[in-house]
Amino acid sequence: MNLQQLEYIIALDIHRNHSKAAEHCHVTQPTLSMMVKKLEDELEVKIFQKTQPLKPTPSGEIIISRARQILQEVKNLKEFIRSEKDSIEGEFRLGVIPTLAPYLLPRFLNEFLQKHPGTSFTVMELQTHEIINYLKTNRLDVAILVTPLDDKDIREVPIFYEPILLYTSENLKYYQQERINLKTLSYDNLLLLEEGHCFRGQVENLCSAKNGKVHHQLNYQSGSFETLKAMVDNNYGYTLIPELAVNSKSKHVKRFVSPEPVREVSLAVHSGFVKENLLFKLREAIMKVIPPHFKKNDKYIRVRWD
Fold it and tell me: Mapping DSSP to helix (H, G, I), strand (E, B) and coil, where does residue 218 land?
């Protein structure tokens, strides 16, 4: 049974003639007759009597009545979805990874809420694996995180490409360099975020192929960029850091030679999410507050987080 068959029997009920019903449905008469016969066979009941003009059987009248109800509900559902796509009003649960939340949300969220008073957010800072699980189990509506996720159940809407910078103490060789070559990185004196942060995975991907004897007088792992920066400011090694989390004009900050490593930041929703206009408005608001060079270009390396 399908909606098309229901439309055919309703057309037959209206026109009481196979030729006119077929013309109304923009199909050939044999096609319409065959589809109606298949429906009757599936339901094991005759819907129309073989009379001229056609007349529904008693059971057929009930089936046709139910078919009208079903098609009306389908129409109502389509109208609802269309309305949902256009509307951004409602209460939404927004997940953001900790390495983005304090640096990105203050730039756009307050202005966004003022501009759209019918929209409200409950914001949760969650690590990437938690966000994926929450989206799949309907505990989050929208997320802002680093992609790609490569998950068929999650839809990704890329927003920007944030450069990854080097933040170095004064006593290291990097401090005297204008630009840093990725090939010179090693684990020596490298300060990392703790396990579970996607940015740690990106740093490890950048440094994993580097050789050399690793020496750690201090093996320090932190949950925040602010702690790592404070350690570097006091001559405890170096770290890698996304540009939004640092004053890029600081003498401790060094850019990499082209192509720069970047992290792809995206909106993510479950594949069944329908509030298209909300995604559009959120992306638009974020794009307005990020530096122009965060937009995609050909001279960058997208670093995976996993």
Answer: coil
The answer to whether 238 touches 168, Cβ cutoff 8 Å, is yes
Task: Report the number of secondary-structure helices (H) and strands (E) in the chain.
Answer: 9, 13
Terminal alpha carbon distance of the chain: 45
Q: Residues with Cβ < 8 Å from 20, sequence gap 6 or more?
A: none
Q: What is the pLDDT of residue 135?
A: 93
Looking at residue 212, its pLDDT comes to 44
How far apart (Å, rounded) are the C-alpha atoms in residues 225 and 239? 9
CA atoms in the 13 A half-sphere facing the CB of 203: 23
Q: Which CATH number fits domain 3-86: 2.70.98.10, 3.40.50.720, 1.10.10.10, 3.40.50.1100?
A: 1.10.10.10
Given a contact cutoff of 8 angstroms between Cβ atoms, the answer to whether 256 and 181 are in contact is yes
- Rounded to whole angstroms, how far apart are CA atoms 180 and 255? 6
CATH fold for the domain made of 90-160+264-294: D-Maltodextrin-Binding Protein; domain 2 (3.40.190)
**Rounded to whole angstroms, how far apart are CA atoms 44 and 218?**
78
Phi, psi of 166 (to 5 degrees): -105, 135
The tens digit of pLDDT for each residue in 245-275 reads 998 888 999 999 988 899 999 999 998 888 8
- Alpha helices (runs of H) in 237-296, residue ranges in sequence order: 276-289
278-295 pLDDT, tens per residue? 999 999 999 999 999 998
- In whole angstroms, give the CA distance from residue 148 to residue 303: 10
